[in-house]
Amino acid sequence: MKRVRVLFLWLLTAAVFPCAAAVIRVVGEDDKATSRPAASQPAESKALTVRVMSDDWGDATRSEIRQVLESAGGELWGNFPKRRISPIIVQRSRRAPITLYRRGPKGEYLIKLTPKGRYWCQFAYQFTHEFGHILANYSHKTPRANKWFEESLCEMASIYAMKKMAVTWKTSPPHPHWKGYAEDIQAYVDDLQKPEDHLPKGKTLAVWYKGNSGALRAAPCLRDKNRIVANSLLELFEATPGDWAAIGYLNSGKPASDSLQDYLSNWYRQTPIAHRKTVGRVIEKFELKIPQIAPVKK
User: What whole-number distance in Å separates Cα of residue 140 and Cα of residue 58?
Assistant: First the structure.
């Protein structure tokens, strides 16, 4: 019964909100969140700081929500050993999950999530998706033509993190009595990786994209299509988890045009050599050209 309820709520969320994720330091759960622009430079830290604000969360407590988000975000954050990040303030949204462009008074990121109640899978899924936007430099405002790619990577971040959570919670959940939720998390992941969430049999990602590029470039939050791209690229990042760090260089620099070739080529150039190989494999998945980069003269 629990699994049916989780599945129903996921389907409802996907239908209503189509465009909506380590070491973690806990801060005091006060109510001083704000949406005013930052008055000073954000205080960045290696620790991922999550603060849940008072709101109508139903029977879920702020402490419980924070621990779920810490667990979910930690599965991603552990792959960014050199990254520093500002604290994240979490508030409730009545409409759709979102990461706001504006920041808190001390430069905090502001994420809004929709679940109400102890629906941990929904919390984890939405948070890791929005966290993916932060990691991918969403504030640089990706040109709309290629926004679908960022959305797809964020969907991939959710699937990746929840697959890891399903394993972690079998033995080391935030609370011992939450071990039983590991099965529900895995069921949620399975529903994100159904046959229709993968490429049609016999089609490569490049061929599939040619037939779907117009729709994606016009409407980046087509979640069924985002999920196909996500599941197609997931194997690359599962094979080399350290290359999640490459996501941190997406949307840096300025592409020569809004073509996918130029967008991904720019990402490749901006990414350090240590993580560039996986970006190159992403480019190859779309049967595009890996840019040639002249060696630095000594």
Answer: 35
